[in-house]
Specification:
The complex is a heterotrimer of chains A (221), B (325) and C (215). Chain A has 221 residues and is mostly helical. Chain A has eight helices and no strands. In chain C, helix 4 packs antiparallel against helix 5, helix 4 runs parallel beside helix 6 and helix 4 packs antiparallel against helix 9. Classes of the chains: A mainly alpha (221), B alpha+beta (325), C mainly alpha (215). Chains in contact: A-B, A-C.
């Protein structure tokens, strides 16, 4: 029995190490992308596809919101989470096309702050919402972000390429964050209610806090 | 069979809409040449005008120089110091500057938004500073080239799709890298020369080949790529490398800097390729974890998509080879 | 290097609160701040760095955050896991009040008191009922958040500042909680009580200063 326990421990520690490696790798990739993602440099250097792909990473709005959505989807499990891969990119494209035709300034910063608070609270409270609700939230969020990101496309930008880049970025981001969250929770190996769930819920509360501060700023200015 | 044909036709139609948007190699480049006519005095000429027009380029020369196109007067100090273009942007991504002195070899500099200021060096042995500049310029250029080269990326994607992961994938990607490094070097030093248009058609055909191999593999046949992925990757790597070389040749390099530029360009290409491979692998892992895989009827969809896009390119490039347009 | 660190908090009146000496900061943080400022970056990196460093450079804030983590670990479940989830929220509410310019009474004294009370609770291994402990910590959280909110810079990217700020505060809690897990062993428990006592002494010093005016 004891031997079994120690073996289990060692397997677990290897898995934890591997997971930490993955999380670290993903973080480094995202940070590196964010560091180099100066919208103007990218726009002129690598063409409109990359302008669209890296525009969401130039400020933290999309990063924080999509991370929150990925955490929510991941904490609900793979059967819920995988729908986002299908829902988010079309939502972004829809928002982008609306934003390109009617302008992108009508989405107030307060709205994205409120979205952060809502998503963060859902994660922090550990509420189990159903697939339809998750998809509706994702669609609303994607639409909002699509509209806002339309501001990154100039008059000379190729809109098809810009949209393809944006959708690609949203897809890759949400797939990676959701999968990382699911891998982190390890539902298959442990009963729920472990420190891993608490860590994810703590992340949710951090996002809510960020949303509150951002909302305060939006109200103050 | 009818359904499969319909699927292929649909994809072809879709790619016909999308593919013209993906311009694999074109960049809005300008080439400006300064030829020294007497000591310290140059005549400037645009050998390739940028899309926005030569008159609208906001060129700044070192303080002791005086520029009024086409004349550039620098006096006794000569053309030494920083040169910059302030209005690089979407329409003009890079400008290549060629300086042809009265004595000695000509020199080339690339001004991009990533490195908008180039320091023109006095003629003579290259210093550490000039090596760093060279490295910065050409690593960036290599990264740009591979990330913008949708055809190269599509080929790598096809390889990953066949080999999937693990040690075999590492060997395959290494073989591709080796192949294109060898032919890039050979072509850059002028050992081999292949006209660009047929070459581009060949590159497109290589992707079609890989797509066909994926379809074969899914049907349970063991194709050439599945058996010897490294051999296929290496062989086609040779073809793609010549393609890289033609992009490098467009920059007009000084002979003594060629080995360095070649090295840094290749390093840039490898950085971009590695980033792409890691991203694809990460996404494949994410899809397995999410259990979000294509349904059985869509299993061949990616292969048909890759193949259709590549075939579209091939036909387009073949038309150009035959000189129809 | 000193200059670089000061750049992070240009908005903070120099005499308002004692700042942690540079030598006491983690070298890694400095490296981060330095890379962020070496290129005179604006916007997101600057906002992230200044937000991240802000909670770490105020010694009173730092001490109180660590004390919260220590106390939570001493109290055990459920405090140890409710704490990291709710504390950032309550603090952000205080931060919003600060940003909006809604004043709180005697903020200086309450913040100084927080280090004294929380440090004292850790030193005494005070076992309050969970609800009362939560209210005590919550009140202090609002005041700490308020102080930071009132000081938020106008120049840097606000969202990046918020992200850096919340992450740094959360990490401070984690530090406190992981040090606090030492309290399972008797010697470790003694050590933590000592730590709590020194935080309380620091709190005394801050309290005296806030009564005696800026020195």
């Amino acid at each position: 029995m004891r031997q079994f326990a120690s073996r289990y421990e060692s397997v677990r520690s290897v898995a934890v190490k591997r997971l930490l490696g993955r999380v670290g790798f993903a973080t480094v990739v995202l940070l590196a992308a964010a560091q180099t993602a100066d919208a103007h440099i990218v726009a002129s250097r690598l063409g409109d596809f990359y302008a669209g792909a890296l525009h969401p990473l130039t400020d933290l709005q999309d990063g924080v919101l999509w991370t929150a959505l990925g955490l929510l989807a991941g904490s609900l499990g793979a059967t819920h989470g995988r729908w986002l891969v299908l829902v988010l990119p079309p939502g972004l494209l829809l928002g982008l096309s609306v934003g390109l035709s009617v302008g992108s300034t009508w989405i107030a910063p307060l709205a994205s702050a409120a979205m952060m608070v809502v998503l963060g609270l859902l994660v922090a409270l550990g509420l189990r919402i159903n697939v339809a609700a998750l998809c509706v939230i994702a669609l609303v969020l994607a639409f909002m972000r699509g509209v806002v990101n339309a501001g990154g496309a100039g008059a000379a930008t190729d809109r098809v390429l810009f949209g393809a880049g944006l959708a690609m970025c949203g897809y890759a981001f949400i797939a990676l964050i959701t999968a990382l969250t699911i891998a982190f929770r390890r539902l298959d190996a442990q009963p729920s209610g472990t420190w891993r769930d608490i860590a994810i819920r703590a992340c949710g509360s951090w996002i809510t806090a960020i949303g509150l501060i951002a909302g305060g700023f939006a109200l103050a200015s | 069979m009818v359904r499969r044909l319909a699927l292929a036709a649909l994809l072809l139609l879709a790619t016909a809409v999308v593919a013209p948007q993906i311009r694999a190699h074109e960049a809005s480049l300008g080439v400006l040449e300064f030829r020294e006519v007497r000591p310290g005095a140059f005549i400037g000429r645009w050998t390739m005008e940028p899309a926005i027009g030569a008159s609208r380029v906001d060129l700044h020369v070192p303080g002791h120089c005086f520029l009024r196109m086409p004349q550039l007067i620098c006096g006794d100090k000569g053309l030494v110091g920083p040169i910059t273009i302030t209005n690089l942007g979407v329409n003009m991504s890079a400008v290549l500057l060629k300086i042809i002195p009265m004595t000695g070899a000509s020199r080339s500099y690339t001004i991009t938004t990533a490195s908008p200021v180039v320091s023109v060096l006095a003629a003579g042995t290259p210093t550490l500073q000039s090596w760093i500049e060279l490295a910065g310029t050409y690593v960036n250029y290599g990264i740009d080239h591979i990330l913008l080269g949708a055809d190269h990326l599509l080929f790598v994607l096809g390889l990953i799709w066949i080999v999937r992961s693990g040690w075999r994938l590492a060997k395959t990607i290494t073989a591709f890298t080796l192949g294109h490094s060898i032919s890039l070097a050979a072509a850059a030093f002028g050992l081999i020369g292949i006209p660009e248009r047929p070459l581009n058609a060949c590159i497109a055909l290589s992707i079609v080949f890989v797509a066909v191999e994926i379809v074969k593999q899914r049907r349970g046949e063991v194709g050439l790529t599945a058996r010897y992925p490294w051999a296929v990757a290496g062989a086609f790597g040779l073809v793609h490398g010549i393609g890289f070389a033609s992009a490098l040749a467009g920059l007009g390099l000084e002979r003594r800097l060629l080995p360095g530029a070649l090295l840094f360009f290749n390093v840039g290409v490898e950085i971009g390729q590695l980033a792409f491979v890691l991203l694809i692998l990460a996404l494949m892992w994410a899809h397995r974890r999410l259990n979000a895989v294509l349904p059985r009827w869509g299993d061949l969809l990616p292969a048909y998509a890759i193949g259709s896009i590549a075939m579209f390119w091939f036909i387009g490039r073949l038309v150009r080879v035959l000189g129809v347009t | 290097m000193t200059q670089n660190v000061r750049v992070t908090t240009p908005h903070a009146p120099a005499t308002r609160r004692p700042r942690l000496p540079r030598s006491a900061l983690l070298p890694g943080l400095l490296a981060m701040a330095e890379t962020a400022f070496a290129h005179e970056q604006q916007g997101v990196p600057a906002g992230l760095a200044s937000g991240f460093l802000h909670p770490l450079t105020g010694l009173d804030h730092l001490a109180a955050m660590v004390a919260v983590g220590l106390w939570g670990a001493q109290l055990g479940a459920p405090a140890i896991w409710i704490l990291p989830i709710t504390f950032p929220l309550v603090m952000a509410v205080g931060g919003v009040l600060g940003v909006l310019g809604i004043g709180l009474p005697i903020p200086e004294i309450v913040i100084a008191l927080s280090a004294l009370v929380l440090g004292g609770a850790v030193a005494a291994r005070l076992r309050l009922p969970f609800a009362i402990a939560a209210v005590v910590v919550g009140v202090f959280a609002i005041f700490h958040g308020h102080a930071h909110g009132a000081e938020l810079p106008k120049s840097a990217d606000p969202l990046a500042y918020g992200v850096g700020f919340v992450v740094a505060t959360g990490l401070l809690h984690l530090c406190g909680i992981s040090i606090g897990t030492l309290s399972r062993s008797p010697a470790g428990g003694r050590l933590i009580q000592g730590l709590g006592a020194s935080i309380a002494v620091l709190g005394c010093y801050f309290l005296m200063r806030s009564f005696g005016g800026p020195s």
